[in-house]
Design a protein that fits this description.
Order of helices and strands: EEEEHEEHEHEE
Helix content: 25-40%
Oligomer: single chain
Strand order of the largest sheet: 1-7-6-5-4-3-2
Number of helices: 3
Structural class: alpha+beta
Length: 196
Amino acid sequence: MSRQVFLYDPPERFVAGTVGLPGRRTFYLQASGAGRTTSVALEKAQVEVLAERIDELLDEVVRRTGGSAPVPAVAPAETADNAPLETPVEEEFRVGTMALAWDGEDECVVVEAQALVALEAESDEELAEAEEMLLRDDENGPPMLRVRISGAMARAFAKRALEVVRAGRPPCPLCSLPLDPEGHVCPRQNGYRRQP
């Protein structure tokens, strides 16, 4: 079966968002354009790392080009997108591997999110070979979301993604684990329940 690639070049909208209450949220990347919408599920940590790496990538592009690349230092106010995810949110796949790149020719950020795949291997060599095959742009690979966005849109994506991640449960000031509304058993308090 051939690989299904959900390509948005460029999307009208590309955001990270959630469905559910803090502590039980499901995180999504959602791209939309030309009358279609693609939503892929991923972990909170993946959203956070993607946003941080996008900002780092854009900072490096600005540094290497001496500021000549069309990349703003911060997200422009006109690119802010605080609207909720488009509904219905239908998960195409759960993200396993992500890739991030700067296309210097087109001056845009390329974000790829590939479906999670279970690898079976008898040895470390077989596992390394299987992982290498996943990274190839093979027509028989797992489904992939590929989005090409401008520097300004990438800054706006990163800003919103970090806000979405931080909108969850507050961290315990002692152990940094998330505090539930009813408190939590804090390891730094030797197992005593800490109230928010």
